[in-house]
Specification:
This protein is of the alpha+beta class. It has one domain. Helices cover about 25% and strands about 30% of the residues. The protein has 2 helices and 5 strands.
């Protein structure tokens, strides 16, 4: 479960970080119980709404039920986030 306040904190921290492995490492250090993944927003399914939208990325939720990771729109099921970089074009 990821509460809305934590999602906002993650989004704010990600705005200050670089969207690369060192940036993800900093987020992982701050929230060690959560999973963090980075990709391009074009790689995300169009049917899945972002939990939070920012200028340089969209934040999606990851669930981990049944031993498989999947996207979710339910923060109660979330065990991590995907930071999906938005192209500046």
């Amino acid at each position: 479960m990821i509460v809305p306040e934590t999602l906002e904190q993650i989004a704010n921290a990600a705005m200050q970080a670089t969207l690369d492995e060192p940036g993800l490492a900093a987020l992982r250090q701050r929230w060690p119980d959560l999973r963090f993944t980075l990709c391009n927003d074009d790689d995300m399914p169009a049917r899945m709404p972002a939990a939070i939208r920012r200028e340089k990325f969209n934040l999606y939720l990851v669930a981990g039920g049944d031993h498989c990771l999947s996207l979710t729109d339910d923060p109660l099921q979330a065990i991590g986030v995907v930071l999906a970089e938005v192209d500046s074009d």
